[in-house]
Amino acid sequence: MSKRDFAWYEDPDLKNLYIKSASNAMRGYHAPIVHPKITFTGTNSLTDLTILLGAYLTEDEKRVLIVVDKDLRKLGEKVAKKLKELRNIDSRIFDNVIPEVPLNTVREAVAICEEYDPKVIIAVGGGSTMDMAKVIMIYYEKPEVNVNTMMAPSYLGLRKKIFLLCAIPTTSGTGAEASFNAMVTNTDRDPPKKVAVPLYEICPDYVVLHSDFTKSMPPYLTMGTGMDALAHAMGAYVLQGSTVYTDIHNLKATEMILEWLPRAIKRGNDLEAREQMLMAAFIAGVGFINTNAAGIEHSLGHSFGGIFHVHHGISVGIFLAASIAYQSKVTDRFYDLAKIFRIEKEGKHRDQVLRKLLEALQDFMKKINAPISIKALEKTQISKDDMEAKKEELINYAFNDTCTLFSTRKLDPPQIWKIFETAYENKIDDLMELYYM
Ligand SMILES: [Fe+2]
Residue 4 pLDDT more than 80? Predict the structure, then answer.
């Protein structure tokens, strides 16, 4: 395999350099704040976006590619109808969005773009759909690009063919509507591998947060994507790449998710809870992406979820307690998270506060029926032997994940395995061992 077949963050030399310096030195040197230009919220938000597009596009530019998956095609059609009726904007629907975003399906959409010449892409869907729309834009504009070499800050000079990228999330969790990252499966590699494509230019320009698009989400998906949002906010808060800007987002998002997620799960048609969760997930999206990464619960969760086919949000949720416990040895930031869980620190030792926080997090997860450990997974039964059989793969995947580069506490392969072992039951005493070790 040549060097170009690897993602840049898999390079062992660069990885070593990053782990030693990135979180400290880079922070003062390069810390842009990236987010969408306008985020429309409320019941008029889809109309607001349509009016904006009507004003922006000339008559012969009124062509929009709507990217949606087959299950949600109706929501794509709803957007198409609004564009046509309100501002006579033509559109085409591409509905072959596949989870994990394989590059070969991206090329299928690019072929449609070459023929149709859209000026705007609107993604209507969850994380995979929004990520796919971002990568369609990259490959349509720059077919020669190698996704392995994408890193922020680098620039491709996009928006020559696609003027605007818009996102309408149908789940509340991924934060993809606010982020400049896309996760795609590089099918040019053997075996294919999921890689991160971080590029400021792929942050959506306009976003619509409208509860009409999330209210039909079933409870399990509401819980899973909500756990993803919680992992974004809490996991990123303990990262050294945090700034005051990311802090206000990650703390507020944590508070909102604790308050509103149980209601959104319990009563799907509770539009207030749906709106608050859309907002919380968006705020968490801005919060985590501007630390440059998600926390290490994402490295571990990407690995575990990818290998055992467990939902992303459920998977990262399982590793959230371990991520906080492990890194809290070298950072005090868990105190602020504990405060949101109403844990008093007065008169308590440092480790007692941490223990209370881990307990409170697990209590919250139990309350919303989120599995707190690998053993507690109901949909996929995974034994310790299954884990052992995949040991090398689990470790390598997590170690070579981009989020590992940004860990506040250095993470080595033996420590990664220790966390996997701990997460099997996630007993509080074992989690505390990660802190002490
Ligand atoms: Fe996530």
Answer: no
